[in-house]
Write a structure and sequence with these properties.
Blueprint (H helix, E strand, L loop, with lengths): L1 H42 L7 H64 L22 E6 L5 E5 L8 E4 L15 H8 L6 E4 L8 H6 L4 E4 L2 E4 L3 E4 L9 H17 L6 E3 L5 H13 L3 E3 L10
Parallel strand pairs: 4-7, 8-9
Antiparallel strand pairs: 1-2, 2-3, 5-6
Helix pairs in contact: 1-2
């Protein structure tokens, strides 16, 4: 925006200087020559000159030049306004996509935990639609089957919206569902193939059994020989590790203390039992209150 303002001022100043220069070096000399010509003509026998008409013609020429320069300035201003508007619109769209990311992540976690899509934003633990207003977004709503609609505000054409339609079939978390099962059904028994695992595989999942290179795996109820090569890349995990989670919890506790809130009560509900126990011990040593609730436990918050 700063660059746009500077450019606009430069164009206006340039146009003004052009008008001054034209008047100083073109219009005024032309009027002097015209006056001299009239004077000379008046000395000729029988010559008749209309001085008012000559002045009017000179003023008309100057007005036409000024109008031409003004049209150039206006054209440049309109072009820059259009560029700035398009740049702002692109930034607003990027901001809207960023706001929708919160919904996408929460919906993915909810589906993986519950095997179905949430009925509404509140069930998924998401903010109310009106609370997501900002930037170019009027609201973000959650529909059937996890569909997310990002409605844009009046700066966009009427009805402008981004619609995200998640597909459970496309997901293949820990190789428990989705199209990967069909690939493995026909490819796991071929020794020429390689199964590349790039994420964490929890216990009791097909992904973990493949990671452990079981000789036989079960897919769609059928026994499939695991003859393909199995390789693992551990660098793609997007989860924070134990130390990062501990650092984040300390920042939450310190921020709450500064605002007079009580220390947080930590519930560990994700991860394998040995890892949960070790993390709980680490947090308790740092004076956190920690529980590892069993499945089905109800906690009043």
């Amino acid at each position: 925006m700063k660059q746009f303002v500077i450019t606009l001022i430069a164009v206006l100043v340039g146009g003004f200087l052009a008008l001054l220069g034209y008047d100083r070096f073109v219009v005024q000399p032309r009027e002097v020559v015209a006056a001299e010509t009239v004077t000379k003509a008046q000395t000729l026998p029988g010559a008749q000159v209309d001085l008012d008409r000559a002045r009017a013609d000179a003023q008309q020429v100057a007005a036409e030049v000024e109008a031409s320069v003004q049209r150039s300035v206006d054209g440049a201003r309109e072009a820059m306004d259009a560029q700035a508007t398009e740049r702002d619109r692109r930034a607003l769209v990027a901001d809207a996509a960023s706001r929708a990311t919160m919904f996408r992540v929460s919906l993915t976690e909810y589906y993986q935990s519950n095997g179905r899509w949430p009925r509404d934003a509140d069930e998924a633990g998401l903010p109310a639609p009106s609370e997501m207003r900002g930037g170019g977004v009027r609201e973000i709503t959650l529909g059937a089957q996890g569909m997310v609609t990002v409605t844009m505000d009046e700066r966009f054409a009427a009805g402008s919206a981004m619609v995200l339609r998640p597909s459970a079939d496309a997901a293949s978390g820990m190789v428990e569902s989705g199209r990967i099962l069909h690939h493995l059904r026909y490819g796991a028994s071929d020794a020429r193939n390689t199964i590349l695992i790039v994420g964490f595989m929890a216990e009791h999942t097909l992904g973990r059994r493949i990671l452990e290179q079981r000789r036989v795996i079960k897919i769609f109820g059928d026994d499939v020989e695991l003859a393909a090569q199995v390789e693992v890349l551990n660098g793609y995990s997007a989860h924070a590790d134990r130390s990062e989670l501990h650092t984040w919890l300390k920042s939450v506790r310190d921020g709450g203390a500064a605002e007079g809130r009580s220390d947080p009560h930590v519930y560990l509900v994700h991860g394998e039992q040995p890892a949960q126990t070790a993390f709980a011990d680490q947090l308790r040593a740092d004076h956190f209150t920690v529980d590892i609730p069993a499945p089905g436990t109800i906690v009043n918050l």
